[in-house]
Amino acid sequence: MRTEMVWLNGHVVRRTGASVSVSDRGLLYGDGLFETIRVYRRHAFLLGQHLARLRGSARTIGIPFTGSVQHWRQVFDRLLAANRLEDAAVRLTITRGTAAGLTPPRRPRPTVLIEARRVDPNLPGARARGVAVCLLPFDRGPAFLGRHKTLAYLPAVLGRREARRQRVADGLYVTAHGLVTEATTANLFVCHRDRIRTPRDDVLPGIARRLVLDLARRMGLRVEERPVSRTLLAAASEVFLTGSVAEVLPVRRIDARRIGTGSPGPITRALQQEYTARVNRAVAGR
Amino acid sequence: MRTEMVWLNGHVVRRTGASVSVSDRGLLYGDGLFETIRVYRRHAFLLGQHLARLRGSARTIGIPFTGSVQHWRQVFDRLLAANRLEDAAVRLTITRGTAAGLTPPRRPRPTVLIEARRVDPNLPGARARGVAVCLLPFDRGPAFLGRHKTLAYLPAVLGRREARRQRVADGLYVTAHGLVTEATTANLFVCHRDRIRTPRDDVLPGIARRLVLDLARRMGLRVEERPVSRTLLAAASEVFLTGSVAEVLPVRRIDARRIGTGSPGPITRALQQEYTARVNRAVAGR
Lengths: 286, 286
Fold this sequence. Notes:
2 copies of one chain form a homodimer. Chain A is of the alpha+beta class. Helix content of chain A is 31%, strand content 29%. Chain A has 8 helices and 16 strands. In chain A, the strands form 2 sheets. In chain A, strands 8, 9, 10, 11, 12, 13, 14, 15 and 16 form a 9-stranded mixed β-sheet that branches. In chain A, strands 2-1-7-6-4-5 form a 6-stranded antiparallel β-sheet, with helices on both faces. In chain A, strand 14 and strand 15 (247-254) form a beta hairpin. The first copy, chain A, starts with a strand and ends with a helix. Strand 3 (19-21) of chain A pairs antiparallel with strand 3 of chain B.
């Protein structure tokens, strides 16, 4: 899925040979942030929202990050053109750059890396049929960093590893208090008839999550941003995940339990259609 | 404090120009581990214990790591000789290497990086006088990874940033339940007369911590491995931190509260002497 060219600190370069210093704080301390943005037909979808989230997190942890939406759109265009891609998932990574010692430098010079990858060709099929997931025996991480998409992504790596072991698509984090918060790279939604719930606390404020909440409200569904217990999850008529690349991904099984009929339910399918319509309008509206 | 030469995947190379691929999972996901080992007069102190901890964590998260204590001693010797150093803090970092996607590869080819740095020349003075620290408004991270020294070190970066803002040496993590667990890179000990307590749960199983527990028991002190509440901390007659580089570091102030007389107490000083004696025996015993 990887592509040949990446953007590194202002230049489009070959991935082979593209490197960061061994002193980079992203490598040594996970001292950085990232965003993954879905590009449809060369249109970076909701880029402004992704950049706003990144800017907010960067301000919180003290990494300078500048550049207008227009600027980054042009950078993405260049990178996609260099890779001869029209559709892609683009990951934008910023680190605090190089500096000795744990205490962060007062004037960091960030490392900025942008990678475009092809979107998994199995994704449309998964979206149509739904996926199986497992409950993970652990939580995502420190609550105070839970709202920031930091480079400290080892819990997600281990979650995916566990999911592969169980031969399912993804894992759902479960807190010590029995709350199910989110998947490794997607937010969680559960439906009970016409009521939709998604956790708000200790989860990443997903860009796709926000869009889906908005679409659901416009469709007249009752939307709640409240915690999801294992019990509530078990009683759901529909469950789906949202992510900028996954979009609206139905869950048909959690561990041994089938969700609803085992096929994507009506709310999930309606939201998928609305999501796609929203993408199409954004692409056409350029 | 940084030195010119580093060891990277089998070779001693200049730090300037030494780099890892932009596809390295350590950079992209914090997917790796590290150890910091103190070298005294070319003797890597308790290296066997550091490697055992690293090997255990590597097994848990699924990164292959091999090589005998003897092998790594020789590597350290080469690196220290290249940097013309006899005393150093050596950081050994392993990542899961390069591989596309969050799901870890089945057969990772790890990146191994070793850096030696000079030990902070202010440390002996700090050890003699004690340091001031602050309580942090956050916890270190996911409990299930708390016992592993992972690259997800952003909480520590932010802890040090807060400590600098408050003009103190370090910060102590405080959980949502009001337990004080450890400093950003050191374990916490509190004394109430001849009783010593250090947390055991959700803290890094420090190599220096283990040695100090052992020394304290030999000295006939009453040692408890139990949680430390803010209240208990406030009532302490002595507080100190332990780390492979910091060794036994007295705390003379926490936020606005002076600890004991504000000077290193008798237990702390006795343990410092025993620690140094243990180092000297190890160095002489080669």
